[in-house]
Amino acid sequence: MVAKARSTAARVPVQPAQDSVAAAEVSLYRNLLKIKNDHTLEDLGISFYDAETTVQWSYNADAYFHAASTMKLAVLLGVFRQVDRGDLALDAPVHVRNRFTSIVNQEPFMLDLGRDADPDVYGHLGKTLTIRELAYWMITKSSNLATNLLVDIVGIPTIQLALDELEIDGIRVLRGVEDSRAFEAGLNNEVTAHGLLKLLRLIAEGKAYSQKACDEMLEILLDQQFRSGIPAGLPKAARVAHKTGNISTVHHDAGIVYLEGRKPYVLVILTQFPAEQGRGKAVAEVSRDIFNTLAESIYES
Amino acid sequence: MNHEESEQGLKVVDAFDLDDELRSILKPGELLRDAQGRRHRLPRYFYEVPSHEVALATRLTAHFAMNEFVLNDLKEAPRLQQYPRYIPCAVRILAFYLEHFRSAAGASVHIAVNGGYRSPSHKMSQNASPHMWGTAADVYRIGSNILRTKETIDKYNDIAEDVSDEIHVLPYGPVTGKNADDHVHIDLGYITLAPREISEDRMEHPQESKPRFAFEERRAKERRAPASVAENE
């Protein structure tokens, strides 16, 4: 990993002065390195874009990480591509069935429902949920069952096509969730901080297919129920449209932060740590640092 | 449900009399090959189910209502995701056998979505399967048991086969079409049913336009059992 901070400000903000922005960046960089060391992170990737100042900042943002559940953002995008084209109705019923086929050898597999966070979906086994409900549970409770059902309907090629159409580099979606044959074959979903940032920026700016599609996606993302990442580093009044991603060695969060009286900022924090260590609170601490940098150092100085 | 429907039962339609879109979906009288290459002629006579309420209210047996056989999702042709729905008349024979299976199993029997009738245009319909004849059911739950283990599927397969030699089940296993690993598949083969109200003297020309109704009035009282008895629970 190239652990090197770099400023990629799109253009220089009018207020505050250039020197205070630079000073804030240096301070932020130091703080992040401290967090990385304190939490003995193996890898850290960060990207943010502030719509208020148009400042963009990143750290190791082109490095690929295991996507974990952040891949569900790409699935959401693929679903709304189909909805926006009229190829899929949000109210269309979907048979809730725990049976999928591996992309490697077409062998069937079932999800371990004991590991899935969402009884709201598997409680409907044998019955139906709508596309809208599945998308909601996929994001807000990170339901793997809902995700795989949506992947089955939309298809991996369509999800990748959506990413390509919107020129989102840095997100590779190859399969659904818990496809162990694919995992053994080394086929994993991967993301970069820049890739997720681009996706979320398009949604925040109403440019992912249509304003209506973006509004629907934001509404779902704002209902996220796992709040130990980005929201944990923010004031309680902050509203965050986001998606977390956790497996045994990664903890990610990617979201759009809405604060009273200013335009939102988009933030992606990807962390990787030793399996024996546990995920800790690094994401929340990075989120807090970035909030402090944006909201205090820049705007209140 | 209007009075006429409740008194006279569901209308039976000759699928050749339906509009072009429905005929292209239901493919009445067409020959389809099964996975073994054998050819079977698709059904021609269907019940027309005008609404969800009617589907719920139409009891085929004491514990099975029509709605359980027409549950589908977006894999079905869009026209058949809306009412009126169409289901081959042989479904009443399937319901009869399922009622006996329910008694033998000693618990409620729950048919999965897409587990009853599937039209030839359904995305799961590749080769001919009795689901297209309305004579197959995928049971995903019996009583409170979700069927997903070899042990439970084998157990209920045995019970189903003991009910009648006419019942065919799929052994536990992973190969779609040959096995089942998250349901019990029960089918009666490729049965077609021509209700007695129907004349079969013409294959491809519209019949006289007067409505034809099945479910003879003499059985109506049995079908309209009190809701508390009729619940499949």
Rg for CA atoms of chain A: 19 Å
Q: Major sheet of chain B, described briefly?
A: 5 strands, antiparallel
**Mean pLDDT of chain B, as a whole number?**
86
Q: What portion of residues of chain A belong to β-strands? A: 15-25%
Strand order in the sheet with the most strands of chain A: 1-3-2-13-12-11
Give the count of helical stretches of chain A: 10
The description of the largest β-sheet of chain A is: 6 strands, antiparallel
Written description of the protein model:
- The complex is a heterodimer of chains A (301) and B (233).
- Chain A is an alpha+beta fold and 301 residues long.
- Chain A is 39% helix and 19% strand.
- Chain A has ten helices and 13 strands.
- In chain A, the strands form four sheets. A six-stranded antiparallel beta sheet of chain A has the order 1-3-2-13-12-11, sandwiched between helices.
- In chain A, helix 1 packs antiparallel against helix 10 and helix 2 packs across helix 5.
- Chain A starts with a strand and ends with a helix.
- The relative contact order of chain A is 0.18.
- In chain B, the strands form three sheets. In chain B, strands 6, 7, 8, 9 and 10 form a five-stranded antiparallel beta sheet that branches. A four-stranded antiparallel beta sheet of chain B has the order 5-4-1-11. A two-stranded antiparallel ribbon of chain B has the order 2-3.
- The model of chain B is unreliable at 1-7, 216-220 and 226-233 (pLDDT under 50).
- In chain B, 41% of the residues are buried.
- In chain B, helix 4 (91-105) packs across helix 5.
- Chain B has seven helices and eleven strands.
- Chain B has 233 residues and is α+β, with helices and mostly antiparallel strands.
- In chain B, a hairpin with a 5-residue loop joins strand 2 (31-33) and strand 3 (39-41).
- Chains A and B meet through strand 5 of A and loops of B.
